[in-house]
Amino acid sequence: MGKSFGLIGLGVMGKSLARNLARHGFDLALFNRHVPGQEEDVARDFIRHFPELSQASGFEVLRDFVQDLERPCKIFLMVNAGAATDAVIDELLPLLQTGDVVMDGGNAHYADTQRRMERLQAQGLHFLGTGVSGGEAGALSGPAVMPGGSADAYALVRPFLEAIAARDKDGNPCCAHVGAGGAGHFVKMVHNGVEYAEMQLIAEAYHILRRGMGMSPDEIADVFAAWNAGPEGSYLLGISVDILRKKSLQGWLLDDIHDAASNKGTGGWATAAAAELGVPATLLTEALFSRFTSSFWKERHEMTQKTDENHENMVFGDVASLQAACQLARLVNHHQGFQLLAAASSRYAWDLPLTEIARIWTNGCIIRSALMEQLRKQVGSHGSFLLLHPENAVFVQQHLPALTQTTCAALAAGLASPCLAAALSHLHALRDADSPMNLVQAQRDYFGAHTYRLKTDPTGPAQHTNWER
Ligand code: NDP
């Protein structure tokens, strides 16, 4: 009898997923390409190292790999997104038969997923764009899994994906069919966008505590550890505690790390999607642009020398005030993320199950947090405009002074705080029932006859004025 599940791509994620699947008792066929002169038989070599893989078979010839699978084949791709994924699919297609299922677990762009799905469907094959989050450790112990595509295809692979996924606090798998087409990869992309801003906010808090309040990394680790035990707790905050405590020969390892942050593209895609869908996802955008700014490290050194400014007398609030500021900014970030999901859901008619998405993000994934547990309940009762949830409206009211004071003090002290400032501005803009956008509308009408509507009749007829007469 053939193997029940096939996995292509034994890199960082593929290896962990293979071991996770094997630990759940699935019989596996594993494939890794052979690059002549560079690597030996990767799959067989890998299998030899892990007892849980003793029943698995390893291949470097794709035809042999497919022939070892029972029909319909269930094949999980864990290769680099983009050209590599297309190359593997090109090679795989002639070997597949009607009804076989291909899942792409890489970080593909949702439009590519849609295109690949249509291509495979035309040949009677199923394709599931499957977001996977949790990094190497999560892939091994239980990731959050976000499959998108046809419900029929999902039904065929559901037992495998649910078995390897993390568990929420009620013991249910952090895996759910999130919708048709490219929905799975869209949801994963928004996850990563929210992740960018979560990371950036922790970095801004660290900067304020270190440079603004003069604390050492060990002291900041103690502060973050205390936050992590309460409602601010998150996976990312927890790993930041470990990072802050890590020593090098000279002092803290963190101080040896070049401060130019990279990215692999999903933050840019999320920013582009926000712009395309008209969603003000300002925190993820600022977090991405902060990474870009950090890459100008030579210019930053030069600017620091040429524009040195004395910031001695800036007054910060206490640590509790910073904590409140960060927590409010995180709420704004998640609000924006769910707004982005809701906009895509309506544009692409995906009917995204937002409560389920919040639930599967409570464990396994990088943005798992105590806040996500709270949002999981709130999305269900109140929809995607999370800031209007009664509990959150009170939270905004209570924590706004702390966010204002912290952000103003940080900026006055010369500490860039793009995500804190974006959260504050976003809240102020949302709380302004009488914004200056009437002037922008008037300007648009002045130079381009773009028309405007009247305050007294916002959905009424478009108006135009000859402004120069
Ligand atoms: P790795 O670079 O570690 O592994 C990539 C795998 O793809 C390798 O097995 C590689 O084979 C194979 N591959 C690359 N090009 C080709 C090709 N043209 N034909 C066949 N096989 C190919 O990447 P990761 O495991 O980290 O990531 C895999 C995917 O998962 C990516 O899309 C990534 O964005 C996504 N992802 C990664 C996460 C992470 O934390 N690392 C988290 C969630 C998703 P070879 O060894 O021969 O080069």
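^ NDP complex. DSSP finds 19 helices and seven strands in the chain. Residues 9-14, 32-33, 35, 39, 42, 78-81, 84, 87-88, 106-107, 132-133, 135-136 surround NDP (CB under 6 Å).
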